[in-house]
């Protein structure tokens, strides 16, 4: 059997884009040429790959099953056939997609962007919001780097601990707790709280720590981002528990005060994660180094 490796690239584009037109644009070929490639792929595999459903095209079960394998094979072929070259940062033009926790974007994103622009002005960074559900974009190559408190369990995902976070209580200036000598666990539990949760969860590790002391708290609201939760705390007597550095960066602008958290909690780690396909990608390795430094500096302040 003689195989045309161009078909592998075309199949990868078709599976990623889900349309002939999108795959053609991605491969910089005409739609008729991509349609002919799809025909050859269908004859080679004996599967329709994409089938029309109304105005869109839907991948077949076979196509869904082989999508990640095709992407990985193409990357391996490109790595074997492409000559190894020194990275020319001055001429590098590439867009990286980063899915970081919003507090890490606020704390470390500006430093990372400044370092990138200084060394490689042609590189662009796309910071995207975290999803409320677990998503496979990192494995599909749609996200280049993740940074959050979760250590991925998949064997093909690399994860590196680059920092830690420590929690403090955030309240408005003039809050009743700012006038007491010591914020005890009992006073903390007796107050009303707002929490940060992408999934809208009303409980977290803080509630587990309180339960061990025989205490419970009342969470009256959740917010999807720290920025939104800070506004709740600024406008009410609600308590908000956040990483210390997040509080420091927002206190001056929002009139907030940080108080010690009266609970013994281990520091939460900050993980930088990427797919193993990028282990030997020079540009990706360069970005990882800059991100590692930016996150470590932010983490050291937490």
Please provide a brief summary of the model.
It is built from eleven helices and twelve strands.
Key traits:
302 residues; alpha/beta; Arc Repressor Mutant, subunit A; D-Maltodextrin-Binding Protein, domain 2; three-stranded antiparallel β-sheet; 44% helix; elongated
Count helical runs.
11
Q: What is the CATH-assigned architecture of the largest domain?
A: 3-Layer(aba) Sandwich
User: Count the strands?
Assistant: 12
CATH secondary-structure class of the largest domain: Alpha Beta
CATH topology name of the largest domain:
D-Maltodextrin-Binding Protein, domain 2
Poorly predicted runs of 5 or more residues: none
Name the average pLDDT.
Answer: 87
Biggest sheet: strand arrangement: 4-3-5-12-6
Rg from C-alpha positions? 24 Å
Compute the separation of the termini in Å: 59 Å
Architecture overview:
This protein is of the alpha/beta class and 302 residues long. The chain folds into 3 domains: 5-81, Arc Repressor Mutant, subunit A (Orthogonal Bundle), CATH 1.10.10.10; 93-163 and 270-300, 3-Layer(aba) Sandwich (D-Maltodextrin-Binding Protein, domain 2); 167-259, Periplasmic binding protein-like II (D-Maltodextrin-Binding Protein, domain 2). 44% of the residues lie in helices and 22% in strands. The chain has 11 helices and 12 strands. The chain has helices spanning 5-17, 20-27, 31-45, 61-81, 102-119, 137-140, 185-190, 205-212, 226-234, 244-254, 282-300, and strands at 50-53, 56-59, 94-100, 123-128, 145-148, 157-165, 167-172, 192-196, 218-223, 240-243, 256-259, 268-275. The chain has a 5-stranded mixed sheet with strand order 4-3-5-12-6, covered by helices on one side. Strands 10-7-11 form a 3-stranded antiparallel sheet, covered by helices on one side. A two-stranded antiparallel sheet has the order 1-2. Helix 1 (5-17) crosses helix 3, helix 1 (5-17) packs across helix 4 (61-81) and helix 2 crosses helix 3. The longest helix is centred in the N-terminal third of the chain and has 21 residues, at 61-81. It is elongated and about 75 Å long. The chain starts with a helix and ends with a helix.
């Amino acid at each position: 059997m003689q195989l045309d490796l161009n078909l592998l690239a075309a199949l990868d584009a078709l599976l990623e884009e889900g349309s002939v037109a999108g795959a053609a644009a991605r491969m910089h070929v005409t739609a008729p040429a991509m349609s002919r490639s799809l025909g050859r792929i269908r004859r080679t595999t004996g599967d329709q790959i994409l089938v029309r459903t109304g105005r869109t095209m839907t991948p077949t079960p076979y196509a869904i099953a082989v999508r990640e394998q095709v992407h990985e094979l193409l990357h391996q072929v490109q790595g074997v056939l492409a000559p190894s070259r020194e990275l020319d940062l001055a001429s590098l033009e590439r867009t990286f997609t980063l899915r970081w926790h919003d507090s890490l974007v606020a704390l470390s994103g500006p430093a990372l962007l400044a370092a990138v622009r200084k060394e490689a002005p042609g590189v662009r960074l796309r910071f995207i919001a975290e999803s409320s559900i677990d998503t496979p974009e990192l494995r599909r190559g749609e996200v280049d780097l993740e940074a959050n408190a979760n250590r991925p369990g998949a064997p093909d995902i690399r994860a590196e601990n680059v920092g830690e976070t420590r929690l403090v209580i955030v309240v408005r200036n003039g809050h009743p707790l700012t006038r007491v000598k010591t914020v005890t666990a009992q006073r903390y539990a007796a107050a009303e709280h707002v929490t940060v949760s992408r999934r809208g969860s009303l409980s977290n590790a803080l509630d587990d720590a309180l339960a061990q002391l025989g205490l419970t708290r009342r969470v009256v609201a959740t917010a999807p981002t720290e920025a939104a939760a800070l506004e709740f705390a600024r406008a009410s007597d609600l308590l908000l528990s956040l990483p210390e550095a997040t509080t420091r960066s927002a206190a001056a602008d929002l009139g907030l005060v940080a108080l010690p958290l009266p609970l013994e909690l281990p520091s939460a780690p900050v993980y930088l994660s990427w797919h193993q396909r990028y282990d030997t990608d020079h540009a990706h390795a360069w970005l990882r180094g800059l991100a590692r430094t930016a996150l470590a500096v932010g983490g050291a302040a937490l």
